[in-house]
Specification:
Layout (H helix, E strand, L loop, with lengths): L2 H16 L53 E10 L7 H17 L5 H9 L14 H17 L6 H5 L3 E5 L3 H17 L10 E2 L1 H4 L6 H8 L6 H7 L2 H14 L8 H18 L11 H18 L5 H5 L2 H20 L6 E6 L1 H10 L24 H4 L5 E9 L2 E8 L2 E3 L11 H7 L1 H5 L3 H5 L3 H8 L1
Parallel strand pairs: 1-4, 2-3, 2-4
Antiparallel strand pairs: 1-5, 5-6, 6-7
Helix pairs in contact: 2-11, 4-6, 9-12
Length: 460
């Protein structure tokens, strides 16, 4: 092994001790709930990349290698979801109601139920309200190190200290804390003593959905926009699930609402993602139950952030154009001199990543997800558990190669091909040509403008 590689491994080894790298004992397979891979947007990043369970800093270099030996990385843009967080205050209230129901009405027939009633305390408080947890900080600290290992010429100490790396975030505290944790990971990796972190808050870019009037009016505030979700909540699959959960708790069927079922499922996911516990609450569900609830949650994301309504995707036009503006600028800088911005790290939400992925045509199934085709959609590609867990990341790497510039796309550190383009790292000009209609259009102001009829209704 070459000395340089030995030195880097020594640094990574020391770093992993400093940050209490989660060992295989902590995340042994026996402690992982069987239903963990169905937690959707509330799932751990490790379920998407299971090799990280044994070594949280592990990097599969074969997956992030350059397109060919004559290629050199010149720019990287990463769009990253915040790390693991507490439940929102809304979900905490639902969990509190569920806990009260179980304490007051459930029987003590099962050991795990006695464990809940005797030993489990309601420790979530409403002031937690979606704040980043320590596991979420580690999500970003560790991701920073892995990306620096995968792309050492771009995410480098020299670029970092010479302001060639830019950090942008949503103003939400969980995103600000995540982007600071990302920088902290790099500071520790490179032994930088300065503990001050810089970033730009930009909600127009990272929370574009809040600025899109048509999305707010037609989807966010429209009770019929998610009718497929409502229909599924009253479907036979959900009714049977409610009865099964009520029977396991030995409470009347009519006391177990869909909100209660979902609260229990979320509680299992939160206990696992936040505290690495295979909670007794997880015993309420088997794999078939989890698949029903995963589909219900995917339906919501599909119709609110994905392909269900055209404006969901079009609301991300601003971020789409920003991405290609950075890539174009790097290409121009390289051609005429020196790339000034080597790396851009942007931290947002699942609601940031999903519309952009949908706009770009990723994970589009031939048949829409609806309340009536749950069984037919078992092989769907739109599966949020795999797409946007905590700390999900879209990484775009621009390479200079002998025959021109090439663009590599990685989702959650795994390379993906662009829709309708067979090559894993196609020529950049071919990618631009594929998205030419969006690049020449997709105007945020026009797409998000309310129609005259909608404006009248809003004024009324």
């Amino acid at each position: 092994m070459r000395p340089a590689v030995l030195r880097r491994n020594a640094v990574l080894s020391a770093f992993s001790v400093i940050f209490l790298r989660f060992s295989s004992a902590t995340f042994s397979q026996s402690t992982i709930p069987a239903i963990a891979k169905y937690f959707g947007t509330k799932g751990r990043y490790e379920e998407v990349n299971p090799y990280l369970i044994d070594d949280i800093l592990s990097v599969n270099k074969s997956l992030s290698k350059p397109p060919s030996s004559d290629c050199r990385a010149i720019h990287l843009t990463a769009v990253i979801r915040h790390g693991t967080r507490f439940p929102t205050s809304k979900n905490i209230r639902k969990i509190k109601n569920l806990h009260s129901l179980v304490i007051n009405e459930a029987k003590d027939t099962h050991t795990w139920l006695r464990d809940i009633k005797t030993n489990w305390e309601m420790w979530y408080t409403e002031d937690m309200d979606g704040k980043l947890v320590e596991k979420g900080r580690n999500d970003h600290r560790h991701l920073a190190v892995r990306l620096a290992t995968s792309f050492p010429t771009l995410i480098s100490k020299d670029n970092f200290q010479n302001n060639r790396m830019k950090f942008i975030t949503s103003s939400k505290h969980r995103c600000v804390d995540s982007v600071e944790a990302f920088q902290e990971g790099l500071h520790r990796l490179w032994n930088i003593k300065d503990t001050s972190y810089s970033h730009e808050n930009n909600d127009n870019l990272m929370r574009f959905f809040d600025q899109c009037k048509k999305f707010i009016e037609n989807v966010e505030n429209n009770k019929t926009a998610l009718q497929e979700v409502d229909l599924f909540k009253s479907s036979d699959e959900m009714k049977k699930l409610q009865k099964r959960i009520a029977d396991r708790l030995e409470i009347p069927h009519n006391h177990m609402t869909t909100d209660m079922v979902e609260a229990a499922f979320f509680l299992c996911s939160y206990e696992f993602s936040i505290k690495s516990l295979n909670s007794p609450w997880c015993n309420l569900f088997d794999e078939a139950d989890a698949q029903v609830l995963e589909y219900k949650n995917d339906l919501k994301q599909y119709w609110k952030r994905g392909y269900g309504h055209d404006i969901n995707r079009k609301s991300s036009c601003t971020l789409f154009h920003d991405l290609f503006r950075r890539l174009d600028q790097a290409a121009y800088d390289f051609k005429f001199g020196h790339v000034t911005e080597a790396v851009t790290v942007q931290v947002g939400h699942a609601e940031t990543l999903l519309p952009l992925l949908s706009l770009m045509g990723f994970f589009r199934d031939e048949t829409q997800l609806t309340a009536s085709n749950f069984h037919q959609q078992q092989g769907r590609t739109f599966r949020t558990s795999q797409i946007v867990p905590y700390a999900a990341n879209l990484v775009f790497v621009l390479y200079e190669c002998g025959e021109g510039l090439r663009l590599q796309f990685l989702l959650n550190e795994k390379p993906m091909t662009f829709p309708s383009i067979d090559q894993s790292a196609p020529l950049y000009r071919n990618v631009r040509n594929h998205y030419r209609d969006l690049l020449n259009g997709c105007n945020f102001e026009k797409e998000c403008e309310l129609s005259k009829m909608n404006r009248k209704n809003t004024e009324l």
